[in-house]
Amino acid sequence: MDEQHTGTAQSLEPLVVRVLAPNPSPFTYTGTQTYLVGTTDLAVIDPGPDVPEHIDAILAAIAGRPVTAIVITHTHRDHSPASRPLAALTGAPIVGCAPLVVADTGPRLEAGFDPDYAPARILSHGEAVTGQGWTLRAVHTPGHTSNHLCFALEETRALFTGDHVMGWSTSVVAPPDGDMADYMASLDRLMHRNDRIYYPAHGNPIENPRRLVRGMMGHRKQREGQILRLLREEARPVPAMVARMYAGLDPKLFPAAGRSVLAHLIDLRTRGLVTEDGETWSHVG
């Protein structure tokens, strides 16, 4: 595991520097990782939460160089709020994902949405932001959120994966905005790329990307299989499925696990494999 130090700029390769925010938690692991891309002029990817000491650390890493763009993968509150003070301090435009605010009071393991995110430019799949010696191209990867983008550094075949693929845990896919079918399709999109390394927003760099993505897809297929086997036995509500599927899990986390199960069930319902009656889900056939 790479050693990480909050607030200290760490060079990962000639074009990439990492700055760790001081926001460790059950959903951020050691904290949100902000990346600086470039040498002469810079892009700042996911400046993180609006925490003055983190913004100061980013400014120290920028070291007076021009910032071409502040680039956002998605609008959870541990990723995008610092874009605004950083834009005011550097004059750089905020670019990247589309705005998205979802009213959701259900149990969740990730941060809520940033309601004040206001990009100067929204990047669609395949569009790029460029600087001297670097190109960041948007890769649309909905699933964790519907507006999620990864960014490919074309010069070194590195991919900044935000929360779509993380270096410590599988991504949370929680309805109403999280969508399991989209998430699986986005993983498949990455399987067809030739990225050398992933730099996630949480956790260590991923040096064998395809192997990890293949394993993540397999894990989700196993969960889907568990759900179908349980519903073939008998119709069940989500909490009963969670109790069977997540043996040994802290009961405090059962509601959040239920969101993941619900995401699978919604996908299975769309595919005509399960149906629901009130709180109870049944296998079709």
TrEMBL record:
Keywords in alphabetical order: Hydrolase
Presence of the UniProt keyword Transit peptide in the record: no
Pfam families: Lactamase_B, WHD_BLACT
Gene3D superfamilies: Ribonuclease Z/Hydroxyacylglutathione hydrolase-like, Winged helix-like DNA-binding domain superfamily/Winged helix DNA-binding domain
CDD domains named among the record's database cross-references: metallo-hydrolase-like_MBL-fold
Superkingdom field: Bacteria
UniProt entry tagged with the keyword Ribonucleoprotein: no
InterPro entries per record: LACTB2_WH, Metallo-B-lactamas, RibonucZ/Hydroxyglut_hydro, Sec-metab_biosynth-thioest, WH-like_DNA-bd_sf
Residue ranges of domain Metallo-beta-lactamase in the record: 31-202
Molecular function terms, GO-annotated: hydrolase activity
Protein name per Swiss-Prot or TrEMBL: MBL fold metallo-hydrolase
Species per Swiss-Prot/TrEMBL record: Sphingomonas panacis
